[in-house]
Design brief:
Length: 386
Amino acid sequence: MFNTVAIHAGSSRAHRLRYLMAATSWLELSRDLNNYPSEHELKRVCGGLSPEVVIIDLEAPESVELAAIVRAELPSAAIVGYGPSREAEVMATKVGFDATVPAEASVDDLRFALQESLRKRQGGVEKSLFCFLPSKAGSGCSTIVLNTAAALVRDQGKRVLVLDTDLRSGIMAVMLAVKPKVSIQTLLASVQEMDHRRFSEFVVTSQGVDYLVSSRALDIPPPEWMDYFHLLSITLRQYDAILVDMPELINPATVELVRRAAEVFVVSTPEIPSMTLASQRFEELERLNVPKTRIGLLVNRLHRSDASSDQIAEMAGHPVTKTFPNDYVGLRSAILAGRPITERSRLGVAYSEFAAELCGKTVLHDTSLTGRLKSLWGIRETSSVA
């Protein structure tokens, strides 16, 4: 829940506002001011409580001025005005309100205003957040996430967290050969009361990578968008990169991750069914207002006899960001051992290259005969990056 301060003039409208706030089930009311406070009192409340949300009843003209004080004290707080007159609504947008709702607003109206206001103030695109979206089940999305995360730690020295958000079918725990005591489902159910010390209890660490893995439990209620919102507020400060292994269908909760990701990679195989569904995933992302510049296409399990990158791009309707060669035997051995694929294999080299590219580095390929032979055999040189 979001720490909230409510301010109103003590009129009968206060009862309606209190009802709406309680009915959202999103707000924890830490202070309910029955009268408009002085500037000194309001500054003291902001400094002492540091609310994430401030709701102000705009019944009286002086209420508009309160937002300017709150904004100066709390730049990241979401400020929502309640029940403004037409004149007050116009003024509200100029002095720091993020949204307003009418006096006859429904619970859903207030929820929408809160969601948009919080996203505006605290929910921007995060350069360290990357989402991986399979075109269809079985595309190898989890494999790419696990091995890219390992390469980011091993080759780039990054602090990395993997989120296993395919809550019903996530297989990270299987691939890591671990049986976690707690799951990401349990964490999300209590994330609003989470602190950094407790967060560490939910993390599984393997090969230097931290994981929040799914238990695939059927009896835990699905999370809401704000659960992921709170999770990001905890984790973004702790890690250099957060990789999200997603289900193929974006839901109202995981859309928060997609919306804030620096890049969303659709993972596909070269087969026509997978390519066809990849094009559908691109359309879905565009409908969610994710710009094309933040969407990539990863082609997994590519054989030499498969279509070229240009042909695949034409089928999928999107340029290919990276291809990964097929290595069934190597991956099977790695999964049985609960570890990433060996970095010296051709596939391991591809993961290392992709990890470097995520860090904004350009891998320079050796095109000499010796370099081509090394690439064929998966011999990895010291990375040459610019």
